[in-house]
Amino acid sequence: MRARTRTARRAVVLAAVASLGAGLLAGCADDGGDGDSSGGSSAGGGKGKTTITMGLFGTQGFKEAGLYAEYEKLHPEIKITENVTERNENYYPALINHLTTNSGLQDVQAIEVGNIAEIVSTQASKLEDLSKVSGVDKSNWLGWKWSQATTKDGQTIGLGTDVGPMAICYRKDLFEAAGLPTDRTEVGKLWAGDWNKFISAGEQYKKKAKSGTVFMDSPGGLINAILSSQKEKFYDSSGKIIYKTNPAVKSAFDLTAKAAQEGLVQSQTQFQAGWDQTIANSKFATVACPPWMLGYLKGKSKPESAGKWDVAVAPKSGNWGGTFLAVPKSGKHVKEAEAFITWLTAPAQQAKLFNVQGSFPSAPSAYTMSEVTGAKNDMTGDSPIGTIFSEAAKSSPEQVIGPKDQIIQQGLTDNGVILVTKGKSPEEAWKTATKTIDNNLDK
Which CATH superfamily is domain 167-288 in? Predict the structure, then answer.
């Protein structure tokens, strides 16, 4: 998954690797006895079988990793289908509408991390309390991941799938050409503990950069990475919106604006066609890199880029992305759906998903499994990606997430820092961003 960033981008982002053809959220599924596929992207039903329908966005990777087939083999009476909407910006409004009317819901619904706070605060009554399901043990999850889907009175409405522990992916060949170290440990030392040091490394890179390349992929990627390492960004722990008064937000904005003014970031919006082309043509040396970004780099790069990337520890640990699976109370097969997602989100299945799709587990016990410790990626060669991301996940702050995080994030990126790359002053960009955000928050 699955930047922030724009909701559409989170879908691609969070979901991990490649886009799927857009599907529509369908109504409640039939149980498959009549062979109805319920409009899903998998073949439906099967005579006499119970069909569990999955409402998903982007490429969650469960089918691709063979997990549906494995569960169906273990439970011959079950058939699993998925109804996929490519972009979360299309998926989420429909999900809210279905939850509000309590109709048209799938047996299982995915919820992106940027939306989980709103669902928890406004729709929990429509969803099953999964903490009470047999086999669900909260200790299986990172504490902050479990908390994100839990209401103040203790109801947990979603089981976590992946998380997005932050690292920095960098091009070894471009670093070498610029006279910078290429060993991942030495690279991490360049900016250890401070995003300002990261910008300083960019300034060093620029002095001897290969012609036509820049240090980082985008201003949106940079500000999102900086903010991901903050415990509070847009909301405080009481639920108050603080993005305009939180010094951490303004500091991240100003540092990103500085990088933009100095030409250290491309004038690109992530997950757009132009940005994709800069990956293919090796136009930047670094990108903020949760595990799913490796899949995206692989999908958009030319074959000759394989092995030229590596992964270094980020200046500060943070999280970018993640998904939850919820079970609506109005679903046709509630108990079967609960049993299925309990199995699907267990540590062993999360480890398998990472090994195939790059979706990093939210289950710490998976971090010692061979599928994680031995994980390799074509783009990064022998880099111990499982170990690097595990450490980042364990040290990421438990971040306060508010109902309108995505609106605020999108305003700061698409109507804010990107403008500095187009000639606006940081002050003008901040004013435009805050005006846009406030207008959207009032809607």
Answer: Periplasmic binding protein-like II (3.40.190.10)
